[in-house]
Write a structure and sequence with these properties.
mainly alpha, globular
Protein backbone atom coordinates (compact mmCIF):
# COMPACT_ATOMS: atom_id res chain seq x y z
CA UNK A 1 0.00 0.00 0.00
CA UNK A 2 2.88 2.40 0.62
CA UNK A 3 3.93 2.29 -3.05
CA UNK A 4 0.34 2.52 -4.25
CA UNK A 5 -0.45 5.53 -2.10
CA UNK A 6 2.86 7.24 -2.86
CA UNK A 7 2.33 6.86 -6.61
CA UNK A 8 -1.27 8.08 -6.33
CA UNK A 9 -0.10 11.09 -4.35
CA UNK A 10 2.62 11.81 -6.91
CA UNK A 11 0.34 11.28 -9.91
CA UNK A 12 -2.50 13.51 -8.75
CA UNK A 13 -0.15 15.98 -7.04
CA UNK A 14 1.99 16.43 -10.16
CA UNK A 15 -1.08 16.55 -12.43
CA UNK A 16 -2.58 19.24 -10.23
CA UNK A 17 0.69 21.14 -10.24
CA UNK A 18 0.90 21.05 -14.03
CA UNK A 19 -2.58 22.57 -14.17
CA UNK A 20 -1.63 25.17 -11.56
CA UNK A 21 1.54 25.99 -13.49
CA UNK A 22 -0.19 26.52 -16.84
CA UNK A 23 -3.04 28.51 -15.32
CA UNK A 24 -0.60 30.49 -13.17
CA UNK A 25 1.40 31.64 -16.19
CA UNK A 26 -1.77 32.58 -18.03
CA UNK A 27 -3.10 34.57 -15.08
CA UNK A 28 0.28 36.30 -14.59
CA UNK A 29 0.42 37.28 -18.28
CA UNK A 30 -3.06 38.80 -18.19
CA UNK A 31 -2.27 40.40 -14.81
CA UNK A 32 0.83 42.20 -16.12
CA UNK A 33 -0.87 43.43 -19.29
CA UNK A 34 -3.95 44.71 -17.47
CA UNK A 35 -2.55 46.00 -14.15
CA UNK A 36 1.22 46.43 -14.65
CA UNK A 37 4.42 45.79 -12.71
CA UNK A 38 3.50 47.96 -9.72
CA UNK A 39 0.53 45.77 -8.78
CA UNK A 40 2.79 42.79 -9.29
CA UNK A 41 5.23 44.21 -6.77
CA UNK A 42 2.43 44.82 -4.27
CA UNK A 43 1.28 41.21 -4.64
CA UNK A 44 4.80 39.91 -4.02
CA UNK A 45 5.31 42.16 -1.00
CA UNK A 46 1.98 41.35 0.66
CA UNK A 47 2.43 37.64 -0.01
CA UNK A 48 5.74 37.79 1.87
CA UNK A 49 4.20 39.71 4.78
CA UNK A 50 1.43 37.14 5.11
CA UNK A 51 4.01 34.36 4.87
CA UNK A 52 5.68 35.93 7.88
CA UNK A 53 2.34 35.96 9.70
CA UNK A 54 1.87 32.24 9.01
CA UNK A 55 4.53 31.81 11.67
CA UNK A 56 1.59 31.95 14.06
CA UNK A 57 0.61 28.35 13.30
CA UNK A 58 3.79 27.35 15.17
CA UNK A 59 4.37 24.22 13.10
CA UNK A 60 1.21 22.52 14.36
CA UNK A 61 0.63 20.92 10.95
CA UNK A 62 3.93 18.99 10.90
CA UNK A 63 3.67 18.05 14.59
CA UNK A 64 0.13 16.70 14.18
CA UNK A 65 0.95 14.76 11.00
CA UNK A 66 3.97 13.13 12.66
CA UNK A 67 1.88 12.30 15.75
CA UNK A 68 -0.80 10.68 13.58
CA UNK A 69 1.50 8.10 11.94
CA UNK A 70 1.42 5.52 14.73
CA UNK A 71 -2.28 5.82 15.74
CA UNK A 72 -3.27 5.46 12.07
CA UNK A 73 -1.15 2.31 11.72
CA UNK A 74 -2.68 0.87 14.92
CA UNK A 75 -6.19 2.26 14.22
CA UNK A 76 -6.21 4.05 17.57
CA UNK A 77 -9.32 6.17 17.02
CA UNK A 78 -9.23 7.64 20.51
CA UNK A 79 -5.81 9.18 20.03
CA UNK A 80 -6.65 10.31 16.49
CA UNK A 81 -9.72 12.13 17.78
CA UNK A 82 -7.73 13.70 20.61
CA UNK A 83 -5.10 14.98 18.16
CA UNK A 84 -7.74 16.34 15.78
CA UNK A 85 -9.48 18.14 18.65
CA UNK A 86 -6.18 19.73 19.61
CA UNK A 87 -5.47 20.69 16.01
CA UNK A 88 -8.92 22.24 15.54
CA UNK A 89 -8.54 24.39 18.64
CA UNK A 90 -4.99 25.42 17.69
CA UNK A 91 -5.92 26.50 14.18
CA UNK A 92 -8.98 28.44 15.32
CA UNK A 93 -6.85 30.39 17.78
CA UNK A 94 -4.16 30.82 15.13
CA UNK A 95 -6.61 32.36 12.67
CA UNK A 96 -7.57 35.08 15.13
CA UNK A 97 -3.92 35.71 16.09
CA UNK A 98 -3.00 36.20 12.41
CA UNK A 99 -5.92 38.63 12.02
CA UNK A 100 -4.85 40.64 15.06
CA UNK A 101 -1.17 40.85 14.10
CA UNK A 102 -2.11 41.64 10.50
CA UNK A 103 -4.23 44.58 11.60
CA UNK A 104 -1.35 45.86 13.74
CA UNK A 105 0.92 45.91 10.67
CA UNK A 106 -1.53 47.98 8.59
CA UNK A 107 -0.30 51.45 9.78
CA UNK A 108 3.31 50.54 8.91
CA UNK A 109 2.74 49.65 5.23
CA UNK A 110 4.31 52.93 3.94
CA UNK A 111 7.57 52.00 5.70
CA UNK A 112 7.72 48.68 3.82
CA UNK A 113 7.25 50.30 0.41
CA UNK A 114 10.30 52.22 -0.85
CA UNK A 115 9.16 55.36 -2.68
CA UNK A 116 5.62 56.39 -3.55
CA UNK A 117 2.93 54.25 -5.16
CA UNK A 118 0.12 55.19 -7.51
CA UNK A 119 -2.13 52.44 -6.14
CA UNK A 120 -4.82 54.23 -4.14
CA UNK A 121 -6.57 51.19 -2.63
CA UNK A 122 -3.37 49.80 -1.11
CA UNK A 123 -4.86 49.36 2.38
CA UNK A 124 -7.95 47.55 1.06
CA UNK A 125 -5.75 45.21 -1.00
CA UNK A 126 -3.73 44.39 2.09
CA UNK A 127 -6.89 43.70 4.11
CA UNK A 128 -8.13 41.25 1.47
CA UNK A 129 -4.76 39.49 1.48
CA UNK A 130 -5.05 39.28 5.25
CA UNK A 131 -8.60 37.84 5.16
CA UNK A 132 -7.53 35.25 2.58
CA UNK A 133 -4.78 34.14 4.95
CA UNK A 134 -7.10 34.10 7.98
CA UNK A 135 -9.76 31.99 6.24
CA UNK A 136 -7.08 29.44 5.32
CA UNK A 137 -6.93 28.40 9.01
CA UNK A 138 -10.59 27.47 9.41
CA UNK A 139 -11.69 23.88 8.66
CA UNK A 140 -8.24 23.15 7.16
CA UNK A 141 -7.20 21.01 10.16
CA UNK A 142 -8.87 17.91 8.69
CA UNK A 143 -6.34 17.87 5.84
CA UNK A 144 -3.78 16.53 8.29
CA UNK A 145 -5.37 13.10 8.68
CA UNK A 146 -5.59 12.68 4.88
CA UNK A 147 -1.92 13.57 4.48
CA UNK A 148 -0.75 11.37 7.37
CA UNK A 149 -2.82 8.46 6.01
CA UNK A 150 -1.16 8.74 2.56
CA UNK A 151 -4.33 10.08 0.93
CA UNK A 152 -3.06 13.45 -0.18
CA UNK A 153 -4.34 12.66 -3.68
CA UNK A 154 -7.86 13.40 -2.39
CA UNK A 155 -6.77 16.98 -1.70
CA UNK A 156 -4.80 17.24 -4.96
CA UNK A 157 -7.75 16.28 -7.17
CA UNK A 158 -10.04 18.83 -5.56
CA UNK A 159 -7.35 21.52 -5.61
CA UNK A 160 -6.74 21.02 -9.34
CA UNK A 161 -10.43 21.50 -10.14
CA UNK A 162 -10.72 24.61 -8.00
CA UNK A 163 -7.50 26.06 -9.46
CA UNK A 164 -9.04 25.88 -12.93
CA UNK A 165 -12.25 27.53 -11.72
CA UNK A 166 -10.45 30.21 -9.70
CA UNK A 167 -7.90 31.15 -12.36
CA UNK A 168 -10.48 31.18 -15.14
CA UNK A 169 -12.63 33.53 -13.07
CA UNK A 170 -9.62 35.76 -12.35
CA UNK A 171 -8.71 35.99 -16.05
CA UNK A 172 -12.28 36.94 -16.99
CA UNK A 173 -12.38 39.58 -14.23
CA UNK A 174 -9.02 41.06 -15.27
CA UNK A 175 -9.98 41.25 -18.96
CA UNK A 176 -13.49 42.63 -18.40
CA UNK A 177 -12.93 44.89 -15.40
CA UNK A 178 -9.18 45.17 -14.76
CA UNK A 179 -10.04 45.21 -11.07
CA UNK A 180 -7.63 43.64 -8.57
CA UNK A 181 -10.15 43.87 -5.72
CA UNK A 182 -12.54 41.51 -7.52
CA UNK A 183 -9.63 39.11 -8.15
CA UNK A 184 -8.81 38.96 -4.44
CA UNK A 185 -12.47 38.45 -3.49
CA UNK A 186 -12.60 35.49 -5.91
CA UNK A 187 -9.54 33.94 -4.26
CA UNK A 188 -11.13 34.24 -0.82
CA UNK A 189 -14.40 32.61 -1.92
CA UNK A 190 -12.57 29.68 -3.58
CA UNK A 191 -10.39 29.23 -0.47
CA UNK A 192 -13.47 28.91 1.76
CA UNK A 193 -15.16 26.46 -0.63
CA UNK A 194 -12.03 24.27 -0.81
CA UNK A 195 -11.72 24.04 2.99
CA UNK A 196 -15.40 23.12 3.37
CA UNK A 197 -15.26 20.36 0.73
CA UNK A 198 -12.05 18.85 2.16
CA UNK A 199 -13.64 18.80 5.61
CA UNK A 200 -16.68 16.95 4.22
CA UNK A 201 -14.48 14.42 2.38
CA UNK A 202 -12.44 13.74 5.51
CA UNK A 203 -15.66 13.09 7.44
CA UNK A 204 -16.81 10.63 4.77
CA UNK A 205 -13.51 8.71 4.76
CA UNK A 206 -13.20 8.73 8.57
CA UNK A 207 -16.80 8.59 9.91
CA UNK A 208 -15.60 8.64 13.53
CA UNK A 209 -14.59 12.29 13.01
CA UNK A 210 -18.27 13.23 12.75
CA UNK A 211 -19.10 12.18 16.27
CA UNK A 212 -18.84 14.84 18.92
CA UNK A 213 -16.25 13.93 21.51
CA UNK A 214 -14.05 15.50 24.15
CA UNK A 215 -11.07 13.19 23.77
CA UNK A 216 -7.82 14.66 25.10
CA UNK A 217 -4.23 13.54 25.06
CA UNK A 218 -2.78 12.23 28.30
CA UNK A 219 -0.39 14.41 30.28
CA UNK A 220 2.62 12.46 28.99
CA UNK A 221 1.35 12.61 25.39
CA UNK A 222 0.76 16.35 25.63
CA UNK A 223 4.21 16.90 27.11
CA UNK A 224 5.86 14.96 24.27
CA UNK A 225 3.72 16.70 21.64
CA UNK A 226 4.48 20.22 22.84
CA UNK A 227 8.19 19.43 23.15
CA UNK A 228 8.15 18.53 19.44
CA UNK A 229 6.02 21.56 18.71
CA UNK A 230 8.47 23.94 20.35
CA UNK A 231 11.32 22.60 18.22
CA UNK A 232 9.12 22.80 15.11
CA UNK A 233 8.26 26.39 15.93
CA UNK A 234 11.96 27.24 15.69
CA UNK A 235 12.19 25.42 12.34
CA UNK A 236 9.09 27.29 11.22
CA UNK A 237 10.65 30.58 12.31
CA UNK A 238 13.76 29.90 10.26
CA UNK A 239 11.87 28.74 7.18
CA UNK A 240 9.58 31.76 7.23
CA UNK A 241 12.45 34.22 7.70
CA UNK A 242 14.64 32.58 5.07
CA UNK A 243 11.88 32.30 2.45
CA UNK A 244 9.59 35.14 3.43
CA UNK A 245 11.88 38.13 3.97
CA UNK A 246 13.50 38.31 0.53
CA UNK A 247 10.70 40.37 -1.05
CA UNK A 248 10.45 42.59 2.04
CA UNK A 249 14.19 43.35 2.01
CA UNK A 250 14.10 43.97 -1.75
CA UNK A 251 11.11 46.32 -1.36
CA UNK A 252 12.70 48.32 1.48
CA UNK A 253 16.29 48.52 0.14
CA UNK A 254 15.98 48.18 -3.65
CA UNK A 255 12.43 49.18 -4.57
CA UNK A 256 8.90 47.82 -5.09
CA UNK A 257 9.41 47.60 -8.86
CA UNK A 258 12.17 45.02 -8.40
CA UNK A 259 9.91 42.90 -6.24
CA UNK A 260 7.69 42.67 -9.32
CA UNK A 261 10.59 41.75 -11.62
CA UNK A 262 11.88 39.10 -9.23
CA UNK A 263 8.36 37.73 -8.69
CA UNK A 264 8.18 36.62 -12.34
CA UNK A 265 11.28 34.46 -11.89
CA UNK A 266 9.91 33.36 -8.55
CA UNK A 267 6.68 32.25 -10.22
CA UNK A 268 8.66 29.96 -12.55
CA UNK A 269 10.89 28.62 -9.78
CA UNK A 270 8.15 28.19 -7.17
CA UNK A 271 5.96 26.41 -9.68
CA UNK A 272 8.79 24.08 -10.63
CA UNK A 273 9.96 23.74 -7.04
CA UNK A 274 6.47 22.83 -5.89
CA UNK A 275 6.15 20.46 -8.82
CA UNK A 276 9.42 18.70 -7.96
CA UNK A 277 9.04 18.98 -4.21
CA UNK A 278 5.60 17.40 -4.46
CA UNK A 279 7.30 14.11 -5.29
CA UNK A 280 8.97 14.16 -1.88
CA UNK A 281 5.94 15.60 -0.13
CA UNK A 282 3.77 12.87 -1.66
CA UNK A 283 5.91 10.10 -0.17
CA UNK A 284 6.52 11.76 3.22
CA UNK A 285 3.65 9.90 4.88
CA UNK A 286 4.89 6.66 3.30
CA UNK A 287 8.35 7.36 4.70
CA UNK A 288 6.79 7.93 8.12
CA UNK A 289 4.99 4.61 7.82
CA UNK A 290 8.23 2.98 6.62
CA UNK A 291 10.26 4.33 9.55
CA UNK A 292 7.75 2.90 12.03
CA UNK A 293 8.06 -0.62 10.55
CA UNK A 294 11.49 -1.08 8.91
CA UNK A 295 15.14 -1.56 9.98
CA UNK A 296 17.79 1.17 9.99
CA UNK A 297 19.59 -0.37 7.01
CA UNK A 298 16.44 -0.29 4.89
CA UNK A 299 15.76 3.27 6.03
CA UNK A 300 19.30 4.26 5.04
CA UNK A 301 18.96 2.75 1.58
CA UNK A 302 15.65 4.54 1.05
CA UNK A 303 17.28 7.82 2.09
CA UNK A 304 20.07 7.31 -0.46
CA UNK A 305 17.53 6.57 -3.18
CA UNK A 306 15.64 9.78 -2.38
CA UNK A 307 18.83 11.85 -2.21
CA UNK A 308 20.04 10.45 -5.53
CA UNK A 309 16.66 11.16 -7.16
CA UNK A 310 16.76 14.64 -5.66
CA UNK A 311 20.17 15.39 -7.16
CA UNK A 312 19.28 14.08 -10.62
CA UNK A 313 16.03 16.04 -10.84
CA UNK A 314 17.17 19.34 -9.30
CA UNK A 315 20.54 19.21 -11.04
CA UNK A 316 18.84 18.72 -14.41
CA UNK A 317 16.32 21.52 -13.93
CA UNK A 318 18.91 23.95 -12.55
CA UNK A 319 20.88 23.56 -15.78
CA UNK A 320 17.78 23.80 -17.98
CA UNK A 321 16.67 26.97 -16.18
CA UNK A 322 20.12 28.48 -16.63
CA UNK A 323 19.80 27.78 -20.35
CA UNK A 324 16.32 29.16 -20.98
CA UNK A 325 15.00 31.23 -18.07
CA UNK A 326 15.89 34.65 -19.49
CA UNK A 327 14.85 33.79 -23.07
CA UNK A 328 11.48 32.61 -21.73
CA UNK A 329 10.99 35.84 -19.74
CA UNK A 330 12.01 37.83 -22.84
CA UNK A 331 9.38 36.13 -25.03
CA UNK A 332 6.75 36.08 -22.30
CA UNK A 333 7.00 39.63 -20.91
CA UNK A 334 9.66 41.57 -22.83
CA UNK A 335 13.16 42.94 -22.22
CA UNK A 336 12.02 45.33 -19.48
CA UNK A 337 11.39 42.34 -17.18
CA UNK A 338 14.80 40.67 -17.62
CA UNK A 339 17.30 40.36 -14.75
CA UNK A 340 21.03 40.01 -15.48
CA UNK A 341 22.95 36.71 -15.45
CA UNK A 342 24.52 37.38 -12.05
CA UNK A 343 21.10 37.73 -10.43
CA UNK A 344 19.88 34.64 -12.32
CA UNK A 345 22.87 32.64 -11.04
CA UNK A 346 22.03 33.68 -7.46
CA UNK A 347 18.38 32.71 -8.00
CA UNK A 348 19.32 29.26 -9.34
CA UNK A 349 21.92 28.64 -6.62
CA UNK A 350 19.17 29.30 -4.09
CA UNK A 351 16.83 26.98 -6.03
CA UNK A 352 19.36 24.13 -6.16
CA UNK A 353 20.53 24.30 -2.54
CA UNK A 354 16.94 24.50 -1.27
CA UNK A 355 15.89 21.57 -3.44
CA UNK A 356 18.79 19.42 -2.31
CA UNK A 357 17.47 19.58 1.26
CA UNK A 358 14.29 17.65 0.38
CA UNK A 359 15.50 14.17 1.30
CA UNK A 360 16.96 15.33 4.64
CA UNK A 361 13.82 17.30 5.48
CA UNK A 362 11.55 14.39 4.59
CA UNK A 363 13.50 11.99 6.83
CA UNK A 364 13.95 14.48 9.65
CA UNK A 365 10.20 15.02 9.84
CA UNK A 366 9.35 11.34 9.32
CA UNK A 367 11.70 10.27 12.13
CA UNK A 368 10.61 13.02 14.50
CA UNK A 369 14.09 14.59 14.78
CA UNK A 370 12.67 17.95 15.79
CA UNK A 371 14.41 18.61 19.10
CA UNK A 372 18.07 18.06 18.27
CA UNK A 373 19.69 21.31 17.22
CA UNK A 374 16.40 23.08 17.80
CA UNK A 375 18.07 26.52 18.14
CA UNK A 376 19.93 26.14 14.87
CA UNK A 377 16.97 27.54 12.86
CA UNK A 378 17.13 30.76 14.89
CA UNK A 379 20.80 31.10 13.97
CA UNK A 380 19.91 30.50 10.31
CA UNK A 381 17.26 33.21 10.41
CA UNK A 382 19.64 35.75 11.96
CA UNK A 383 22.40 34.96 9.45
CA UNK A 384 19.92 35.33 6.60
CA UNK A 385 18.66 38.75 7.68
CA UNK A 386 22.10 40.20 8.45
CA UNK A 387 23.88 38.90 5.33
CA UNK A 388 20.94 39.71 3.03
CA UNK A 389 20.79 43.33 4.21
CA UNK A 390 24.56 43.81 3.98
CA UNK A 391 24.82 42.30 0.50
CA UNK A 392 21.65 44.00 -0.76
CA UNK A 393 23.24 47.39 -0.13
CA UNK A 394 26.21 46.50 -2.35
CA UNK A 395 24.94 44.12 -5.07
CA UNK A 396 21.15 44.52 -4.92
CA UNK A 397 18.74 41.64 -5.48
CA UNK A 398 21.53 39.08 -5.92
CA UNK A 399 22.80 39.96 -2.44
CA UNK A 400 19.43 39.16 -0.87
CA UNK A 401 19.37 35.74 -2.51
CA UNK A 402 23.01 34.98 -1.71
CA UNK A 403 22.27 35.84 1.92
CA UNK A 404 19.64 33.10 1.89
CA UNK A 405 22.14 30.64 0.43
CA UNK A 406 24.79 31.55 3.00
CA UNK A 407 22.36 31.03 5.90
CA UNK A 408 21.35 27.63 4.52
CA UNK A 409 24.96 26.49 4.06
CA UNK A 410 25.91 27.59 7.58
CA UNK A 411 23.09 25.58 9.17
CA UNK A 412 20.78 23.15 7.36
CA UNK A 413 23.32 22.01 4.79
CA UNK A 414 25.55 20.29 7.33
CA UNK A 415 23.45 19.78 10.44
CA UNK A 416 20.40 17.94 9.04
CA UNK A 417 22.47 15.13 7.49
CA UNK A 418 24.69 15.08 10.59
CA UNK A 419 21.83 14.28 12.98
CA UNK A 420 20.30 11.76 10.58
CA UNK A 421 23.55 9.88 10.08
CA UNK A 422 24.49 9.95 13.75
CA UNK A 423 21.19 9.19 15.47
CA UNK A 424 19.09 7.42 12.82
CA UNK A 425 21.43 5.63 10.42
CA UNK A 426 24.41 5.43 12.81
CA UNK A 427 26.92 5.90 9.99
CA UNK A 428 29.70 8.32 9.06
CA UNK A 429 28.27 11.47 7.48
CA UNK A 430 31.41 12.09 5.39
CA UNK A 431 30.00 9.94 2.59
CA UNK A 432 27.00 12.28 2.32
CA UNK A 433 29.15 15.42 2.01
CA UNK A 434 31.50 13.78 -0.48
CA UNK A 435 28.58 12.84 -2.75
CA UNK A 436 26.96 16.27 -2.34
CA UNK A 437 30.13 18.19 -3.26
CA UNK A 438 30.89 15.90 -6.19
CA UNK A 439 27.37 16.30 -7.54
CA UNK A 440 27.39 20.08 -7.04
CA UNK A 441 30.66 20.48 -8.98
CA UNK A 442 29.21 18.30 -11.73
CA UNK A 443 26.14 20.54 -12.04
CA UNK A 444 28.34 23.68 -12.23
CA UNK A 445 30.51 22.13 -14.95
CA UNK A 446 27.50 21.02 -16.98
CA UNK A 447 25.90 24.47 -16.70
CA UNK A 448 29.15 26.02 -18.01
CA UNK A 449 29.32 23.44 -20.81
CA UNK A 450 25.75 24.19 -21.85
CA UNK A 451 26.42 27.93 -21.89
CA UNK A 452 29.64 27.85 -23.95
CA UNK A 453 28.03 25.44 -26.41
CA UNK A 454 25.70 28.22 -27.55
CA UNK A 455 28.06 31.19 -27.41
CA UNK A 456 28.07 33.09 -30.70
CA UNK A 457 24.94 31.34 -31.98
CA UNK A 458 22.25 33.81 -33.05
CA UNK A 459 18.84 32.54 -34.05
CA UNK A 460 15.12 32.92 -33.46
CA UNK A 461 14.31 32.92 -29.72
CA UNK A 462 11.82 30.06 -29.98
CA UNK A 463 14.35 27.95 -31.86
CA UNK A 464 17.04 28.93 -29.35
CA UNK A 465 14.89 27.77 -26.43
CA UNK A 466 14.07 24.51 -28.21
CA UNK A 467 17.74 23.82 -28.98
CA UNK A 468 18.90 24.67 -25.45
CA UNK A 469 16.26 22.49 -23.82
CA UNK A 470 17.01 19.58 -26.16
CA UNK A 471 20.77 19.86 -25.69
CA UNK A 472 20.40 20.24 -21.91
CA UNK A 473 18.16 17.19 -21.59
CA UNK A 474 20.43 15.01 -23.72
CA UNK A 475 23.79 16.13 -22.35
CA UNK A 476 22.83 16.11 -18.67
CA UNK A 477 20.89 12.83 -18.69
CA UNK A 478 23.54 11.10 -20.80
CA UNK A 479 26.40 12.12 -18.52
CA UNK A 480 24.43 11.29 -15.37
CA UNK A 481 23.62 7.89 -16.84
CA UNK A 482 27.27 7.18 -17.74
CA UNK A 483 28.49 8.16 -14.28
CA UNK A 484 25.79 6.54 -12.14
CA UNK A 485 24.44 3.61 -14.14
CA UNK A 486 26.17 1.07 -11.86
CA UNK A 487 25.10 2.64 -8.56
CA UNK A 488 22.64 0.73 -6.38
CA UNK A 489 20.29 3.70 -6.28
CA UNK A 490 20.11 4.00 -10.07
CA UNK A 491 19.61 0.26 -10.54
CA UNK A 492 16.82 0.26 -7.97
CA UNK A 493 15.01 3.21 -9.58
CA UNK A 494 15.53 1.77 -13.06
CA UNK A 495 14.00 -1.57 -12.04
CA UNK A 496 10.96 0.12 -10.52
CA UNK A 497 10.39 2.31 -13.59
CA UNK A 498 10.80 -0.64 -15.93
CA UNK A 499 8.36 -2.62 -13.82
CA UNK A 500 5.82 0.16 -14.27
CA UNK A 501 6.20 0.39 -18.04
CA UNK A 502 6.17 -3.37 -18.50
CA UNK A 503 2.67 -3.70 -17.15
CA UNK A 504 0.28 -4.89 -19.84
CA UNK A 505 -2.75 -3.67 -17.97
CA UNK A 506 -3.83 -0.07 -18.48
CA UNK A 507 -4.97 0.06 -14.87
CA UNK A 508 -2.23 2.00 -13.13
CA UNK A 509 -2.95 0.63 -9.70
CA UNK A 510 -3.84 -2.94 -10.55
CA UNK A 511 -2.98 -5.85 -8.27
CA UNK A 512 -0.34 -7.09 -10.72
CA UNK A 513 1.34 -3.67 -10.67
CA UNK A 514 1.63 -3.65 -6.92
CA UNK A 515 2.80 -7.26 -6.78
CA UNK A 516 5.61 -6.55 -9.25
CA UNK A 517 6.84 -3.63 -7.21
CA UNK A 518 6.70 -5.64 -4.01
CA UNK A 519 9.32 -7.94 -5.46
CA UNK A 520 11.66 -5.00 -4.93
CA UNK A 521 12.38 -3.34 -1.60
CA UNK A 522 9.00 -1.73 -1.02
CA UNK A 523 9.07 2.02 -0.27
Amino acid sequence: MRIQNSIKNMFFGISGQVISMLMGFLVRTVFIHTLGAEYLGVEGLFSSILMMLSLANLGFDTAIIYSLYKPLVHKDHRKIQALMNLYKKAYTITGFIVLLIGLMILPFLPVLIKGSTTIKEINLIYMLFLLNSVFSYFLVYKQSILIADQKNYVISKLHAILVIISNTAQIVILILFGNYIFVLLTQIIIRIIENIIISIKANNIYPFLRTKNKEKLSLEERKDFFANLYALFLYKLSGIVINGTDNIVISVLVGLKYVGLYSNYLLILNTLNTFLGYIFYSISASVGNYVVKETKERQYFLFNVLQFSNFWVFGLFTILLWNVCNPVILIWLGKDYILNDFVLAAILLNFFTAGMQNACTTFREATGMFRRGKYRPVIAALINIIVSILLAKTIGIAGVLLGTVVSRICTYFWYDPYILYKFIFQKNVKTYFFKYCKNFILVICLAFLNQVSFNGISTNLFIEILLKVSFGLMSVNFLFFVLYRKSKEFIYLKDILFSIFRQRSNKLFSTSFISVLKQKDEL
